[in-house]
Amino acid sequence: MTASSTAYTVSVCCITYNHAAFLAQTIESVLMQKTDFAVELVIGEDCSTDTTRALAQDYERRYPGRVRVLAHAHNLGIMPNLMATMAACTGEFVAFLEGDDYWTDPAKLQRQVDLLRARPDAGLCFHDAEIVYEVDPPRPPAVFSQHIAPHALPAPSPAAAPVRFTQAGLAQAGWIVPSASMMFRASNLPQPLPAWFAGVFSGDYTLQLLSTRHGAAYYLPQPMAGYRVHAGSVTVQSAQSERRFQQRIYEARMYRQHVFGPENKAYGDVYLAKQYLGYAEFLGAAGRWRERLPYLLKGWLLARQRVALFVRHRLARA
User: Fold this and answer.
1) Structural domains in the chain (count)
2) Bridge partners of 164?
3) pTM of the full structure
4) Are residues 70 and 168 in the same domain?
5) Shared domain check, 260 and 138
6) What does the pLDDT read at residue 312?
7) Residue 182 confidence (pLDDT) above 60
């Protein structure tokens, strides 16, 4: 079987821009995976201004059939690059790994595929990770589940059973999925990703909610990735700004229209309310009181859905 005709079980979707200092470790962490199935690494290189493209293409030459580079002719931006790279993935399952993160366990992909195959209801599998801070002043590493999501995720344990989440569970818990840990069942995602995806703020969270609209997410409580935070990462650069709030509001509106089903509509309302109220607070701090008022009112009106969700959760526990 030639490289071009290989049937891949897993496609690794890797988007990268100016990651020359990190990308080799990212790629090596994919190449070290021990699996009983074929894996392809698809790198969406978005016209970096450093040597990222040359590095990626060197690996493509050295590992034909395993590494494939999408060398865009012009800079697309994060979400369009993600959309293009996802569209190029051919595997039954798609794992996500940005060009500045890396995997730490050579059995990661095998474990996730085994789980997804054993649980036909699963649209997403994710796992714990170590947050690696490369910032000034220095910070020690932290375990994602305990630092970010102790309200929803158990502590790491090699013997712990997977934890199941519905779309509503993910919406209720908030950001609990390290992007470097995500593996999707490709058939649970719209192909190609819809045009509105290009305008969202959080691509990974949007993929999580899309993949669980008609399926569940399963969490493996073992750290198997390094989630890097550094001066150039989106996590650091996406400080509060007017553009960020506007993107979040657009994203929330798209969730209400296209992502949350009728049974989870209240979660879409609450998420949009959060964005309206956050923007109102931002405008108030800038002294833009007249602009602030309509967002404040819309946020309060939608936030009433919190009461409905509270009652729903209490009844579910009764």
Assistant:
1) 2
2) 218
3) 0.92
4) yes
5) no
6) 55
7) yes
